Structures are given as structure tokens and as C-alpha cells.
Amino acid sequence: MMENALLRYENVTIAYSGLPVVHDVSLSLREGEILGVVGESGSGKSTLLKAAMGLLGPGGVVARGDIWYKGKNLPELLEEELRRLSGAELAMIFQDAGASFCPVRSVGAQLYEAVCAHENISETDFREKAEALLQKLRFENAVRILESYPFELSGGMMQRVGIAAAMLLNPAVLLADEPTSALDVSVQKQVVEEMLLIRDLWHTSIVIVTHNIGVVRAMADRVAVMKDGRIVESGGTRDVLEHPAQEYTKKLMAAVPKLRLRRGA
Length: 265
Hints:
Elements: E1 7-16, E2 19-29, E3 34-38, H1 45-53, E4 60-69, E5 72-73, H2 79-85, E6 90-93, H3 107-116, H4 123-136, H5 142-147, H6 155-166, E7 173-177, H7 185-202, E8 205-210, H8 213-219, E9 222-227, E10 230-236, H9 237-242, H10 247-254
Parallel strand pairs: 3-8, 3-9, 6-7, 7-8
Antiparallel strand pairs: 1-2, 1-4, 4-5, 9-10
Helix pairs in contact: 3-4, 6-7
């Protein structure tokens, strides 16, 4: 499985200011696959994604191991090389995608600027491309979305727009960092459906980091469970969630709220 992976973490240790926070992690993502990474807050889930994108920030470094994408070791790439891959081949969705938009420029203007950083395209051609993408992803009024300012759209709509924006250059890998955590249940469902549609339409490989077991159950083909910066269990989603082998995974599953109907109510 590791040999056929599109994205591959090999014995990765990540440190901040010399202090390891992720320890000896190995993961693989195949073409067209959705991999869920679950665990409690502070377990190192988001740090894994940031390491692939070169977004660890001051003091953060991949201290050991490799992150391979199409024969390239991402931590060893020069900044300019990684910038060319970011967005075009590797895209990331953040927990609050709307916060990455400038509030005083239209959504369309900002998306056009982002696309122009990677390809030479006229504004007219961009608009056709962007409207077609939004329509495929079931936005009711693509023109209105592009002409709106971020503050004119709801938080849930901006999260969906952020996901659509990540797909404008049709990247092979989509890294999603808690994309549903700040949303109400009905919008969570829309976001999950949008990401599944992305996989169906473009065969995009997705890594989704979340503490929401329901989202992983609905989306992921495989799941990895993290605790204290280590992978403690991994495998097929149904096997891990329904028949966990490790004590920590059992406790994690036991913590998932369950609704029970009162008889006679």
C-alpha cells in the first residue's frame, strides 16, 4: 500500500523549538482515497497536514523522516518549489476558510488572483471556469457568490466557498483541517456531501482531520487514530470504528454521544 501511495509519510517526527510533538508517524494516501485522522485536541492531527504544506510556522520543523508526493520529498523542497505545488497539486482547507478571505474585496476577485498565481488566464475565462465549478458543486447562484463580499455570505456558505476555491486548480490531494467543526449540523452535512462530490467528480484524494467521528464514518475509506502525537491504530474505517483493537480507540468511541429514545415519551 505504501509503495502505491500518492502521498506518503515515512517515520515522520515533527518538533517545535526542538521539542517533538509528532512521533515517528507513517501514513499513506492512495489515489481517489479518503483518509480520516481522528483524535482528541492536541494529538498532532493538524500538525501533520501543516508539515506537508510547509505551514508549521516559526520553530516548527520535520525533524526526522520524509513526506513524499510524486517522488518529491516535501520538507526538502525549496520555498519556490513548494509554492508551485501548493494550490495546483496540493490544496488545504482550514477550519475557518472564510477567515482567509479579505473582507473588502469580492470573492471572485480574490479567487481570480489566486488562480493567476499559477496560470495565465483571462478574467472572462476564469469566470466561466469558476461558475462551472460552483454549479457542479451545487451552488444555487454561482454568479452571486463570485460577486459577493465575504461578509455578505454566512459562515457555512463561506466554508463551502473555501472548499470550492481549493478545487479551482484541480489539485490531486486535498488536505482538510477540521472543515466542519465550526458549523451547525445541517451545514456539516452540506460540507460532507460537497467533499464526497469532489472525490466522485475529480477522483481527488482527501485527508480529513477531525474529532467528529460521524464525519469520518460518513466519508473515510480508512482511518488513523492519533494520541499524544502517535498513531495508535489504523485500518478500514468500519473495522476501526466498530471493532477497535486499542484501548484508547475504545475510549474514544465510548465518548461519542448516543441519542436514546425514552419509551412511552
